[in-house]
Amino acid sequence: MRKLYDWTIRMAEHHNALWVLAFISFIEASFFPIPPDLLMIPMIIAAPRRAWLIAGVAMVSSVLGGMLGYAIGALAYEGLGQPILAAMGKGDAMEAFNQTFVDAGFWAVLGAGITPFPYKVITIMAGWTGMPLATFIVTSIIARGLRFFIVAGLLFYFGPPVRSFIEKRLGLVFTIFFLALLGGFAVIRFL
C-alpha cells in the first residue's frame, strides 16, 4: 500500500498529471468506474498551491465527459447505454426508474454529481429520459464544481494535517475510500 501511495504522489507531481486527471475525469463521467478523486487528492496534497487549478480541470473535464454520457443515453442507449447500465446491475430497472428520474432530474444530477454515487449512471439517464441539455449542463457544473472545489478547499486549507493523517493511517484511509466506492455501486444496485 505504501509503495502505491508513494508512486501516486510522485505521479501527481509529474508535468502531465493535469492531462491525466482531465482524461480520467472525462471518461469517469460516461463509462469508467474509477473516480478522479484517486488522482485529484494526491495531486492537491503534493501541490496545494495548484488546488484550484486541479479542481477546475476535474470539473470541466467531468462536465464534458458527462455530456458524452448524455449523448450515449440520448443517441445510443440501446447499443451503448443499456450495456453500461446492465454491467452495473441496472439494466432491467431502467424502465421503472424512467419516470422517477424525469420527476427528480435536477436533483438526481445534483446528488450524483456531489456524492460517491456513480455520476455516469445519471449522465446516461439524463440523455435517455430527454432531460433538457441546458438543465443537465448547468446542474452538472454546479454539482461537479461543488464536489471538486470542496475537496480542493479542504485539502488547501487543511492539507498538511490531512497528508499526515493519510500517511500515518494509510490502510484505514484506503479502506474507508474503498468502502465509499463500493457503497456508491451498492446504492445503484438497490435503487
UniProtKB/TrEMBL annotation:
One Pfam match: VTT_dom
A GO term from the CC aspect: plasma membrane
TM region positions: 17-39, 51-72, 133-158, 170-190
Top-rank taxon, per record: Bacteria
Keyword Lipid biosynthesis: no
Keyword Cytoplasm attached: no
Domain VTT: 35-154
Protein keywords: Membrane, Transmembrane, Transmembrane helix
InterPro entries per the UniProt record, alphabetical: DedA_domain, VTT_dom
Name of this protein: Membrane protein YqaA, SNARE-associated domain
Source organism: Pseudooceanicola nitratireducens
